[in-house]
Every structure is written in C-alpha cells, then in structure tokens.
Design brief:
about 260 residues, mainly beta, eight-stranded mixed beta sheet, four-stranded antiparallel beta sheet, globular
C-alpha cells in the first residue's frame, strides 16, 4: 500500500498472533484453508518505475494504476507491451486501485477521499465521487454487479458501480481471526483475491462470508538483485477465460503469468 487489477489477498492479523513464516504475523491456517503455490508460465517486462497500485486485464488490454504524489497515473495497453495511453494524476493525488466496469474505469486515491470515473477507451476523466476513509484496492463482481473495495483494514466494502454509494461490507477472517492491510484486489466469481501489504502470500476470500479459503505463496518470484531495487508484491489480475493470473509489484522489472497450484 503506502510504502510502495491476476486480483489476491494477503492479510495480517489486527491483534498480535504467532507468525506462521510469511512475515505478516498472521495465524497458522486452520482446517479448510487451501495451501497453493505459484507456477510461472511466462515472464513479461514491467516498467521498473511503476509504483503499481492496481492491475486488471479487460479484453486484450492491461489497465494499471500507479501511485506516489506527483508520479501517479493510470495506463492502458497490451499485456507485456508499452502502455498506449497514460493519464497522470495531478498533485496532491496519490493513485490507488482500479477496476473496469463496462465502458468505464473506476480509480481510487489513497487519502484524498476521491474516486475517479474514467472513459475506458481514452482514460479521460468523467467525474469524481467522494468517499470516507482511505482507498487501497478495488475490483468488480460482474455477476452481482457490485464493486469491492479495501481500505487497509480487515473490512471489504461493497459499492454501487453506478454512483459509488455503499451497499454493504464484510469483515475478512482467517481461522476466526480478523486479517488487516488488505490491498490490491481481483474479483473472480464469488471469490476475491487480495494482496496484503508487506507480504508475498496472497489470500483467496469468500466474498459473502469474508472467510479466507486459500493462501497462495508467491514468494521467490524476483531474483535477490531484483528484490533489492523493488518494493512489495502488489498487483493481481486474472486472464479472462483461463485459470491464469498476472502478478507484479511496486517497482518490479517483471510481471509473471502464473497458475495457482496445490502445494507439493
């Protein structure tokens, strides 16, 4: 999130709990939480100057939102290619997650309390809508036609994609413990995949109950030299019509086309 749309959840406990080895302090997963690894299918170039906050593939186009004041942008172009459209955000806006809804793109800002609605084809700004609290991650549940938004806590907030109004919320738990710092999101059916700030373990969340159903170990994707110049994992987007996802992070030189496979 602040230190830094194939979408995933990494969660840290709100209260101190024993560390299970992923660096988040989250509890050991209980019965019913599937353990998955990342299988790399392809490596693709990524702008090492992009402070990735949101990632989503719609059709043949990759949409990416980047952060930092004075450096934030929204971009669109072919997966693995140079962006064909780049729209900067004016200071003092700090760009965050984004998602595609029909002919529009919704983009969050971190602490400005503003969501920006854009034209999908040109990324031109259409309007701004205010919201309370911080903006971190955002995705669109097509079947339910609702937005799912994270704010750095253990809560996911549901919003109307037409006017961004709140329609509900759910608290995310793993083995009965609330998990915070939910960041970039990807909606896939009734699940939300989420990054958790400062962790290389993604979470798959049942969106109706808020229960974590899988932990996905995405550690080791970068070499030690690449890791030295990069920031945290943050960026998950599903390839439409496949079981593959695209993963990257803030200031990462590479994106990874991957599958999530059972451990062992």
């Amino acid at each position: 999130m602040i230190s830094g749309g194939l979408a995933l959840a990494v969660l840290t406990a709100c209260a101190p709990t024993p560390d299970d080895g992923d660096g988040t302090g989250s509890p050991t997963s209980g019965v019913g939480v599937e353990r998955l690894d990342v299988e790399v299918v392809e490596e693709l170039p990524h702008d090492p100057e992009a402070f990735t906050q949101g990632l989503e593939i719609a059709g043949d186009t990759l949409y990416e939102g980047t952060g930092l004041v004075g450096e934030s942008s929204v971009r669109a172009g072919p997966v693995g290619g140079e962006p064909e459209i780049v729209r900067p955000l004016p200071e003092p806006l700090f760009g965050e997650g984004l998602t595609v809804v029909g002919d529009r793109v919704w983009q969050l800002t971190w602490q400005a309390g503003v969501a920006i609605e854009r034209d999908r084809d040109t990324l031109a700004e259409r309007r701004r809508v205010g919201y309370d609290g911080e903006g971190w991650g955002l995705c669109h549940r097509e079947e339910a036609d609702e937005l799912v938004m994270s704010d750095g806590s253990a809560r996911l907030t549901f919003r109307d994609p037409a006017d961004f109004s709140v329609t509900g919320s759910v608290t995310v738990t793993e083995s009965g413990t609330e998990l915070a710092e939910l960041n970039e999101l990807e909606c896939v059916g009734d699940a939300v995949y989420a990054n958790v700030w400062h962790s290389d373990v993604l979470r798959r969340i049942d969106v109706d109950s808020g229960r974590v159903t899988a932990r996905i170990d995405a550690s080791g994707l970068l070499t030690p030299d690449e890791r030295a110049d990069a920031d945290v994992l943050n960026g998950v987007a599903k390839y439409p019509g496949s079981d593959e996802f695209l993963l990257t992070g803030k200031l990462w030189p590479t994106m990874f086309r991957v599958r999530f496979v059972p451990q062992g």
